[in-house]
Amino acid sequence: MTEERIPLMSRPVPVIVVIVLALLLDQAVKFAVEAWLPFQEAVHVVPMLALYRTYNYGVAFSMLSGMEGWFIVTLRLFVVGFVVWLWRQTPKARGFAHAGYAFIIAGAFGNLIDRALFGYVIDYVLFYTETWSFAVFNLADSFITIGAALVILDELLLLRRAKR
After folding, report:
1. Has 141 been annotated as catalytic?
2. Residues with Cβ < 8 Å from 8, sequence gap 6 or more?
C-alpha cells in the first residue's frame, strides 16, 4: 500500500505561515501607502496603472458602503468561517484549492484589520484608460482574487481528471 503525498498547502502549518506572511505584507504596504501616497491624487506608474489612495467603506468595489460597520465585519467573519470550513472539507490531495482558500482567508483578514482599525479599507491600485477605470483595490483584494482563481483552477483540473 502506497501512501499519497499530501500537498504542502493542504497542511495546517504552511497554510498558517502563508496567511501570516500575506497579512504582514498587506499591512506593511498599506502602512507605506498611508504614510507616503497623497489622498485621492493619482500617481501614474506606467500607462494604465496608477497608485491612488482612497478609502472603501463597503466591501468589494464599495458595495454595501451604506451599511453599518458591524454588519460588514460580521459578513467578513462569516465568509472567513465558511472558507475555513471549505478548507477542512476539501480532500487533502487538492493542493490548489487549499492554497486558494489560504489566500482568500489572508485577503479577508487583511481588509478586516483595516475595517477594525480605521472603519474603512485602504485601497490604492487603479487600472484605467482615457475612457474607463477599474475600481480601486489593494493587495488583500488581489489575494482574494488569486485565491478564487486557484480554487477554480483546482475544480477545472478535477473535472479534467474525472474525464480521463
Report:
1. yes
2. 14, 95
